[in-house]
Fold:
Amino acid sequence: MKSLATKLRQLQGSILTIWSLIVYGILFAPVLVIVLFIFNASKSRFNLIWDGFTFKNWLNPFADPTLAQAFFTSLGLALLATLLCILLALPMTMALERFRIKGASGMELLLVLPLTMPEVVLGASLLLLFVQMRIPPGPLALVISHTLFCLSYTAMALKARLGGHDWTLEEAAADLGASPLRTFMQITLPRLAPGLLSAGLLSLSISMDDYVVSSITAGSVVTFPLRIAGAFQREISPQIHVLSTMVLLISLVALVLSCRENDDGHQPNQN
Amino acid sequence: MKLPLTRRDLPLLLVAPGVAWLIFFFVLPLLELLRQSWSQPTSRFGLTTTLSPNPDNYMDAFSLAAPLFARSVGIAALATLVGLVVGFPLAWWIVRRGGRWKPLLTGLVVVPFFFSYLVRTIAWTTLLADSGPLMQMVRVLSLGHLLNNLGLLQDGRLLNTTTALVAGLTYNYLPFLILPIIASLGTIDPTLLEAAADLGAHSPRIFLKVVFPLALPGLISGGLLTFIPAMGDVVNSQYLGGVNDRMIGNIIADLVLIQQRFTTAAAISMLLLLLITFFLLMYMRRYGKTGLGAS
Amino acid sequence: MKRLTRRRDVLRFLITTGGTAAMAPVLSACQPNKGKQNSVPLIISNWPLFIDTDQPGVAGSVRRFEQATGIDVIYREDLNDPDSFFSRIRLPLAMGQPVEQDILIVPNWLASRLIRLNWLEPLPWAQIGNASNLEDSLKKPLWDPKGLYSLPWMVGITGIAYNIKSTGRELNSVDDLFAKELHGRVSFLSMWRDTLGLLMLADGKNITAPTYKDTIPALQRLEQAKTSGQIRSFTGNDYQKDLLVGNLAACVAWAGDVAQLMGENPDLRFVVPKTGGVLTADVMVIPRKADGKREAAQWMNYVYDPINAARIDAATHFISPVKGVKKVFAASSSTAKLIEDPLMFPDKTMANRLHMLGPFSDQDEIAVERQFSKLIAS
Structure:
């Protein structure tokens, strides 16, 4: 015989579980739509109404040439921006974590502030600077803009990893007479590799996803999101769904891999 | 005489490139924004502007954007609130019932957001379309009239309504809400709750007096992380909102991208930044810098 | 030790190949690759649904041109909204730098603005022999009085498109867009010249010499309709999607677009309101310092051959500016009936109902723009 209190508690528990499942459902509803419509044998230009099942789209992800080109443009841009970000953020976060620097909290604030600004203001301010520098919206402006906002994400991701980093190995190497560069290349870098990978992936996906800042600074360069937005008005080809899913799968796989490769024994702090 | 590079210079050397980049491409643009908000263009489509001490741009900004500011704050607050109400139980469930599945369940919250923001929003336009699954359900259950009268539907449709806008905003920022809450709930020692129960407290009381205060930091930082970007949102309003749902971000984007009125856009942007700084300062006053960097 | 080496190798591999992989697409986006015969690829920006695209078994005009001339064409349908398009090209041109495109196909008022700003190259007329096929009424037009900088591509009619199943009846006037039973199911174009032009005609104004004052009643009407929820959205080209999918019952639209959409949804109709429709010429211009002037001339010459022009027109259903298209249509049984379409070949009655929006004074134009933008952006 269960008491009223226990029954109440069980009811609470069930409601909680049902609620949570509903929320998961809402979270995944768009995902379902996207993935489902990959297999839509869409007859119209708009892949919005279900027309029948087909594998054709999945097998031809690059059937739409302008879409494919936009995809690779975004990829190249993202890779370049991520590279720059890591070159800028890695030394910075390492120094901030390892050494005591005057003005460190100011620098950390500076790193975080771009994330608190609305993207449209970030884009507008960058555009105004570019106008002064006579840099037209285009590839250069894009790379600079993307590097800027990815920098904050990369720095945060690296900071999380470095937080638990055990510096004793590096200190031992220094005691043994190794130069800072050598210590870095042979000891720090390999241990940081999974952290770098996940920070890099984060930066990649942020860059490939950017719409607002890109719409202001891209000029005539057509990135993947810009192409989707432009196309949305004229057509929604199944290839959009296919390519987006591919990006998702790759990000997922890489994320899982980077979680597995955990040599240091500390839990990676994911975002 | 050239000074040798010592080990002591190393930290500064390491931070220098990053700091320089941030100063040049983050701080300088903001200063330029400020300058432009106090300038007038010298010709309609030319690039040069002259500094002029009159607050014309700000007057323009007020008359153009005052209602939009109010609307943006309201909608962002609503989306944050709805998100908290929807997300908190899930966070609680993951922390308390997750057990060894906790990382997986937490990860699942984030997975949908690996899809591009745009693609997700477009998927929502499919879901909310007049002929889409949700509207079909509404028709089957004959909820149309009721929801229309409640203001949730507009003219019997779900897309291009305030409802869709709030739903989209809430959805897109849900992980930003849920993750910090999970983090702060995770710090609650379960024995604390058992002790409270043993002392005779009922669940609601335990919740109010023990759980809620301890979860508050996560709620607040998650809320802030949602509220502030939501205020400046452009995409959800464009695709999901109706003609009367334009937000601050939209007018800035319009002034920059279509009307080419940079000086007015700069003034509105400055006002928006002021508003955000105000909220941030209010937060930092009470909670310091905690939660800002940790997310 | 083994693990360390493997990861280090991976990293090294990533950096070297990742870097080169990264550079390639970005670099290629910066420089167009040199095509055959020392010719530069021709980059064209145009509206969507404005050319005959490749169909199964039949090559579109772009491909035909490429095969006929050996010139690579990069044809972009990236004009959704002339104002945002202008803002994209404005900055480089104002900085004295070239834009990517060699040919822009823009509405006549935008061409007029570009001419006044001195941001266009005069067309290489010597190499466009077929330009003599231009309809006489379009020679030395108002927007290009010297006739040096532009060559019309298509002339379009702005009117009302509707789905007869959704409206339940035929529509024929602008007032229909404000009808109560269509509440929340209509849209207007975000391009004020089309929208206000149509409304001004409905107000009985003469739009060949318009003033800001003339637009006030139209603006007020729109404002009211917007706040009451009568208008579902202000759209660029994207009204097409909404019309097809059924989000809209009626909207302001362009004739040729609707004719093409009718193939996908036969319930769609287009009508020029009783009070009149707006005529806009979309013209080809060459931006300053474009490097493909020679190739551009060849394109223009190609599309002004009546046979090629007819092919494009048969697919797009707009009004062709090229003389002789009518004859080409008449000669073939499959296209003969197109001649009777008043939207493609306006007869006297239709022509009387079509009006081109004249230029505003600079001051008035700014005033109208501000008011309209305030309306749709807030």
User: Anything to note?
Assistant: Chain B touches chain C at residues 44-47, 64-65, 67-68, 129-131, 154-157, 159-160, 242-244, 246, 250-251, 254-260 (CB under 8 Å). Chain B has a mean pLDDT of 85. Chain B is about 70% helix and 0% strand.
